[in-house]
């Protein structure tokens, strides 16, 4: 390990430019192991834990709670307990000077904007990130969500893959005319968006309802699904939290929606920021959105149960598959990850809920 | 998402509803404009250009220039609404409503009630309000309290471009007469507004931020000021909830009371003259229904009880400011807690 390691403001999502340390979990002088949670980082979109990039002693906290600093700014310093104070000071000074110079030299990077592609099913909104020549990964969100579900995961994948996050019909900026409310119909729209973006085949990453859509796409067009990563997917068992589905559709005010969204996470304290809550409310308000959500809920989760099983799609040993779940999933129980074929890699995170890609983005990214 | 101005947001709402529903027509002084002049397809579109482009898109059959006779065209709109159209009439400056008030409060507002619920009057009256435009006292008033007072009318006061589009679409789809207030100093404000149509329901307040120390309720243009004040106060460790009622009739008093019961402190910001305005109305309801929760006297931030001055220096002083809102919140924070009985 190097003698001194910087702690910097992380970039949570492609559009983040600044953030604040909501709370420090470690005291000055405390010994820290690599991967340990040191602080909570908060933006208007999300609050998430900062994991230590290295082992060491927390020698400096340079940013107080509530102070807003740009992405990449030095917020603390780790070092050996024996490293002299003067060296730590010199490191901070040098680091800050370099950061300021880099900021000066580099123009603000453009924030990638979602685009709408025309398909036979109507306009579908997509967000691309990563080099076009890299292997493609298609990201399919869950019920009621949109491409922003992959706020944390997509940037992590974009260094290695050409990523395409797709808004399903009825969701986000996509058409509110459903090709049909079932996974097979929704998969056709995903397939059409892939075609429109020149993607023949891809590693499909699906969350929740998006997991069922990924399975349906693999079933309909096996050659397009090179691999599957399913995060708390629908389609593997009968149970589903009907209160979440109904509550999500009914919620019209920020607080009511925030309460419903909290069910997605392992603990009651929702890390979702007001910007995300407001964005979800606005998406639900678009003409046709509520009707589309209701139709999807009725077709996929009638009477509080999942309407179908797509387990058989995972039987093909030639297609690599990951199934990822949080032990504390309060929407679809992690027990549905049981009894899967031997070639399917199952990862269950003890301290995650229904959205492992938001709660454990680094771990999920490493699986893909 | 594209950024749009308040002006574009209202224009887009009108255009999308006119495309969706052939019963929607717009009428008023100069909503087409340029009558008889060359190039009429790109005519003025109202005095501040809000209806620009609609004449070319929908033609003179649905974009009707009217004579300068407010009682005639507001009355015509009320009659058209009662007989199947969905007119959007432009009253231009709310200060002019005096000349057509009978059509509004005795006719449009009463049809549903006096015809035993069998009539509906789906009309919208668009109107500009507010100070800060150097337009003097006959073109600068905030008369929404007058309309809020009258049962049978709905009153929408959007606080941003996003709100303007959604509330206008709701206003057009609503089956009751809606007075739609557009602050003339806000037309160039921009924010992200979806291209798709969406309706914001009436009578549902918007919470712009939530804090536990004080509740700030603000109307129309004042919402942005209240939000800025809350940001300044947050740096002083005073956390405010900021509520935009969106519509003063119906008024989401329940959301306001719920917040007051949590914070115990209420500041109401209203650009209307201080006697019988929204600040007094909301304060009275809070005092009546949430008195036990109050930790400090309610504060109202309103202009003085004078006509809007023409002198720019005085007009600026007249309008409630971010500083005045901050001062009011600091005052309610400083008030000693009431002793337990």
List descriptors:
heterodimer; A: 368 residues; alpha/beta; OB fold (Dihydrolipoamide Acetyltransferase, E2P); Rossmann fold; 2 domains; eight-stranded mixed sheet; four-stranded antiparallel sheet; 10 helices; 29% helix; globular; B: 341 residues; seven-stranded mixed sheet; 14 strands
What features would you describe in this structure?
The complex is a heterodimer of chains A (368) and B (341). With 368 residues, chain A is of the alpha/beta class. Chain A is built from 10 helices and 16 strands. Chain A has an 8-stranded mixed beta sheet. In chain A, strand 13, helix 4 and strand 14 form a beta-alpha-beta unit. The model of chain A has no long low-confidence stretch (mean pLDDT 92). With 341 residues, chain B is of the alpha/beta class. Chain B is built from 12 helices and 14 strands. In chain B, the strands form 3 sheets. In chain B, strands 3-2-4-5-7-6-12 form a 7-stranded mixed beta sheet, sandwiched between helices. A 5-stranded mixed beta sheet of chain B has the order 9-11-10-13-14, sandwiched between helices. Chain B has a two-stranded antiparallel sheet with strand order 1-8. In chain B, helix 1 runs parallel beside helix 7, helix 3 runs parallel beside helix 4 and helix 9 packs across helix 10. The termini of chain B are far apart. The model of chain B has no long low-confidence stretch (mean pLDDT 94). The chains are: A alpha/beta (368), B alpha/beta (341).
How much helicity do the residues of chain B have? 25-40%
Ranges of chain A where pLDDT stays below 50 over 5 or more residues in a row are none
Rounded to an integer, what's the Rg of chain B over CA atoms?
20 Å
Superfamily at the CATH H level of the largest domain in chain A?
Alpha/Beta hydrolase fold, catalytic domain
**Helical region count of chain A?**
10
How many structural domains of chain B?
Answer: 2
Helix fraction of chain A, binned, reads 25-40%
Alpha-beta classification of chain B:
alpha/beta
Query: If you average the pLDDT of chain B, what whole number results?
Result: 94
| Main beta sheet of chain B | 7 strands, mixed
**Measured distance between first and last alpha carbons of chain B:** 54 Å
CATH H-level superfamily title of the largest domain in chain B: Thiamin diphosphate (ThDP)-binding fold, Pyr/PP domains
β-strand percent of chain B reads 15-25%
CATH fold description of the largest domain in chain A: Rossmann fold
Please count the helical segments of chain B. 12
The best one-word shape of chain A is globular
Name the biggest interface: A-B, 11 and 15 residues
Mean pLDDT of chain A: 92
Main β-sheet, spatial strand arrangement of chain B: 3-2-4-5-7-6-12
Sequence of secondary-structure elements of chain B: EHEHEHEHHEHEHEEEEHEEHEHEHH
- CATH hierarchy: architecture of the largest domain in chain B: 3-Layer(aba) Sandwich
């Amino acid at each position: 390990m190097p003698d001194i390691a910087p702690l910097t403001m992380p970039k949570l999502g492609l559009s983040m430019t600044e953030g604040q340390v909501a709370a420090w979990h470690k005291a000055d002088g405390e010994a820290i192991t690599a991967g340990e949670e040191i602080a909570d980082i908060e933006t208007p979109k999300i609050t998430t834990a900062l994991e230590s990039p290295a082992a060491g002693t927390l020698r400096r906290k340079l940013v107080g709670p509530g102070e807003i600093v740009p992405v990449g700014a030095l917020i603390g310093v780790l070092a050996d307990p024996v490293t002299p104070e003067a060296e730590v000071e010199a490191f901070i000074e040098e680091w800050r000077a370099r950061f300021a110079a880099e900021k000066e030299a580099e123009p603000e990077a453009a924030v990638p904007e979602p685009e709408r592609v025309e398909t036979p099913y109507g306009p579908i909104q997509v967000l691309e990130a990563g080099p076009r020549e890299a292997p493609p990964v298609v990201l399919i969100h869950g019920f009621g969500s949109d491409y922003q579900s992959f706020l944390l995961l997509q940037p992590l994948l974009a260094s290695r893959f050409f990523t395409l996050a797709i808004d399903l019909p009825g969701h986000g900026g996509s058409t509110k005319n459903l090709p049909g409310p079932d996974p097979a119909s929704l998969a056709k729209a995903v397939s059409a968006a892939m075609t429109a973006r020149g993607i023949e085949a891809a590693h499909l990453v699906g969350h929740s309802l998006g997991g069922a859509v990924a399975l349906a796409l693999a079933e309909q067009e096996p050659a397009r699904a090179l691999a599957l990563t399913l995060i708390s997917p629908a389609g593997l068992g009968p149970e589903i939290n009907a209160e979440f589905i109904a509550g999500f559709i009914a919620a019209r005010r920020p607080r009511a929606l925030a309460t419903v969204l909290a069910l997605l996470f392992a603990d009651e304290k929702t890390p979702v920021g007001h910007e995300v809550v407001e964005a979800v409310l606005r998406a639900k308000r678009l003409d046709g959105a509520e009707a589309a959500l209701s139709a999807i809920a009725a077709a996929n989760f009638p009477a509080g149960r999942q309407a179908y099983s797509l387990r058989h799609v995972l039987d093909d040993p030639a297609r690599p598959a990951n199934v990822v779940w949080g032990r504390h999933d309060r929407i679809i129980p992690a027990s549905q990850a049981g009894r899967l074929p031997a070639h399917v890699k199952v990862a269950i995170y003890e301290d995650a809920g229904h959205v492992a890609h938001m709660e454990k983005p680094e771990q999920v990214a490493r699986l893909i | 998402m594209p950024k749009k101005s308040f002006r574009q947001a209202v224009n887009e709402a009108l255009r999308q509803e006119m495309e969706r529903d052939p019963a929607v027509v717009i009428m008023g002084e100069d909503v087409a404009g340029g009558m008889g002049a060359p190039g009429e397809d790109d005519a003025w579109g109202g005095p501040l250009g809000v209806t620009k482009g609609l004449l070319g898109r929908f033609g003179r059959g649905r974009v009707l220039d009217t004579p300068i006779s407010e009682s005639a065209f507001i009355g015509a709109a009320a009659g058209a609404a009662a007989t199947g159209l969905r007119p959007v009439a432009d009253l231009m400056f709310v200060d002019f409503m005096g000349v057509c008030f009978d059509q509004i409060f005795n006719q449009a507002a009463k049809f549903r009630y006096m015809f035993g619920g069998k009539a509906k009057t789906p009309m919208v009256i668009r109107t500009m309000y507010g100070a800060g435009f150097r337009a003097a006292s006959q073109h600068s008033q905030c008369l929404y309290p007058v309309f809020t007072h009258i049962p049978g009318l709905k009153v929408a006061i959007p606080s941003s471009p996003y709100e303007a589009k959604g509330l206008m679409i709701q206003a057009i789809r609503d089956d009751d007469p809606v007075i739609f207030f557009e602050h003339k100093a806000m037309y160039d404000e921009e924010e992200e507004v979806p291209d798709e149509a969406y309706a914001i329901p009436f009578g549902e307040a918007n919470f712009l931020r939530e804090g536990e120390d004080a509740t700030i309720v603000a109307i129309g243009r004042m919402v942005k000021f209240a939000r800025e004040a809350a940001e300044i106060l947050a740096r002083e460790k005073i956390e405010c909830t900021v509520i935009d009622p969106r519509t003063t009739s119906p008024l989401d008093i329940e959301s306001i009371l719920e917040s007051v019961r949590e914070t115990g402190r209420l500041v109401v910001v209203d650009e209307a003259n201080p006697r019988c305005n929204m600040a007094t109305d909301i304060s009275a309801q809070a005092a009546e229904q949430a008195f036990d929760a109050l930790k400090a006297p309610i504060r109202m931030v309103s202009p003085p009880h004078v006509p809007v001055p023409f002198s720019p220096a005085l007009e600026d002083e007249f309008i409630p400011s971010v500083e005045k809102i901050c001062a009011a919140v600091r005052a309610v924070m400083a008030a000693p807690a009431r002793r337990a009985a």
